[in-house]
Amino acid sequence: MSMEVEDNEVVSPRADLIAAVLWVAFGLAVSIGAWRMDRLEKLSINPYEVPGLVPFFLGCAITVLGVALFIRAWAQGGWHAPTASAKAQDPTLLKHMALVFGWSLFYALVLVGKGLPFMLGTFLFITVFIGVLDRQRQIEMGRSATAQWVRAAIYGCCWSLLVALSFEYIFLVRLP
Q1: SS3 content of the chain, % helix, strand, coil (to 5)
Q2: pLDDT level of residue 2 (50, 70, 90 thresholds)
Q3: Are 11 and 81 in contact (CB under 8 A)?
Q4: Taking a C-beta distance cutoff of 8 angstroms, is the pair 5, 11 a contact?
Q5: In the 8-state DSSP scheme, what is residue 50?
Q6: Is the distance from CB of 135 to CB of 148 less than 8 angstroms?
Q7: pTM of the entire structure?
Q8: Which residue has the higher pLDDT, 130 or 9?
Q9: b/e for 53-63, b at 16 or more Cβ within 10 A?
Q10: d(Cα 135, Cα 152) in Å, to the nearest integer?
Q11: 3-state secondary structure 55-110
Q12: What integer pLDDT is reported at residue 1 of this predicted model?
């Protein structure tokens, strides 16, 4: 028994089993990292407003969903099933996955909190993310490279502004 995805390609239970292990590891890492954050007791912070509270619960949710995926994949014979489909081993897909992972790490480790204003770092992240990863689709739609990058910059500007303003005025978090 296997599960179908949007483009009607079958995802093997083995691929789900491998993904489940990765999701559980990621969820646990997020939860542990959030739990170890400074609680700011010395500043008399309300326990419901401590840094890391939302990431902790998100990490727990990811872990629980990863465990559910693991159980389902195991029940479907994921331990003995063949490995992932040819699409999962497609070099283009793997390249995009590496770009997403690498660019996200660059954003988290370099662009944010290292002297660059949050809004500018977020603008650069979103603009490059859209500009690079949506390039092929934009070419297929007949858009020029200039139009594509202008569109990516508009999205980057709007979303970075929305995120920054949300953090500052809704969540009351001062950003670097």
Answers
A1: 70, 0, 25
A2: very low
A3: no
A4: yes
A5: -
A6: yes
A7: 0.60
A8: 130
A9: eeebeebbebb
A10: 10
A11: HHHHHHHHHHHHHHHHHHHHHCCCCCCCCCCCHHHCHHHHHHHHHHHHHHHHHHHH
A12: 44
Task: Please tell me the predicted confidence (pLDDT) of residue 4.
Answer: 44
31 band by pLDDT with thresholds 50, 70 and 90: very high
Distances (CA, A) of 6 to 3, 11, 44: 10, 11, 49
Q: Is-contact 14 53, C-beta < 8 A? A: no
| Total residue count of the chain as it appears in this document | 176
Q: Rounded to whole angstroms, how far apart are CA atoms 85 and 104?
A: 26
Contact predicate 36/53, CB 8 Å: no
The two structure tokens encoding residue 52:
């890391």
Tokens of 93: 């897909």
The pLDDT confidence band at residue 54, using thresholds 50, 70 and 90, is confident
Residue 93 pLDDT grade (very low, low, confident, very high; cuts 50, 70, 90): confident
Give the torsion sign (CA, 24, 25, 28, 34).
Answer: negative
Interatomic CA distance for residues 21 and 29, integer angstroms: 12
| Largest Cα span, the chain | 58
